[in-house]
From TrEMBL:
InterPro entries: Nitroreductase, Nitroreductase-like. It comes from Mycolicibacterium neoaurum VKM Ac-1815D. GO terms for molecular function: oxidoreductase activity. It comes from the Bacteria. CDD domains: Nitro_FMN_reductase (cd02062). Belongs to the nitroreductase family. Residues 12-190 form the Nitroreductase domain. This is Nitroreductase. The keyword Oxidoreductase applies.
């Protein structure tokens, strides 16, 4: 596919046909995705390929905590898991939420668990009085490259982070070392339907000249 076509049609895929995603194809996806940029070329990422149904089920169960809070906050008009706006829902509100099973984790042909070695990231924002985001630059370019490569091969997936709320349990389940952080769980498979056109803000709505409050670009 044309590069721009891939970029414009790589949407979030959560429903899969069950068609196999062979190791040969997955290897090709990962072999191309590995050329994502990495600070200092340190390449501190580690990918775990999961096909075992019991492990998929366990990861789906470990996603419930994050999903329950997300749903409860949405119901109460809050921005879920937002670092600037503390959660206002009560324990009773949380307990009342019935969380549907993460079927996209169960139905995917493969789950990729993406980790990053915290011993090699350069977190330039670690001393700032806000939530850290810079360390994500060491892992999320790879994650997105995987999704782009999967789209190019006719497959799809979605970047999920719900399980990170239970990171200690995920680490124990998958024998992830203490010095690594869980960054994402990617379900991959053949999409039931493929998005042909994504809806995004025009450039002029989020790009400005010279300053944040400068004139619109484009």
């Amino acid at each position: 596919m044309d590069t721009y076509d891939v970029m414009r049609t790589t949407g979030a895929v959560r429903q899969f046909t069950g068609e196999p995603l062979p190791d040969e194809t997955l290897t090709r996806i990962l072999d191309n995705a590995r050329f994502a940029p990495s600070g200092g070329n340190r390449q501190g990422t580690h990918v775990i390929v999961i096909r075992d149904e019991a492990t998929k089920s366990a990861l789906a169960d470990l996603s419930v905590t994050g999903a329950r809070r997300y749903i409860a906050q949405k119901r109460h008009g809050e921005s879920p898991w937002n670092p600037l706006h503390p959660m206002g829902v009560t324990d009773e509100d949380l307990a009342a939420v019935q969380v549907p099973r993460a079927t996209h984790l169960l139905d995917a042909e493969v789950l990729l668990v993406i980790c990053v070695d915290l011993g090699v990231v350069a977190a330039f924002d670690q001393d700032l009085d806000r939530i850290g985001v810079v360390a994500g630059a060491s892992v999320y370019p790879l994650v997105w490259n995987i999704l782009l490569a999967a789209r190019n091969e006719g497959f799809g997936g979605v970047l999920t982070t719900m399980a990170i709320a239970e990171e200690p349990a995920v680490k124990q389940l998958l024998a992830i070392p203490d010095d690594h952080a869980l960054a994402a769980v990617l379900p991959l498979g053949k999409p039931v339907t493929q998005v042909r056109r994504l809806t995004r803000k025009p450039v002029s709505e989020f790009v400005t000249r010279e300053r944040f409050d400068g004139p619109a670009f484009g």
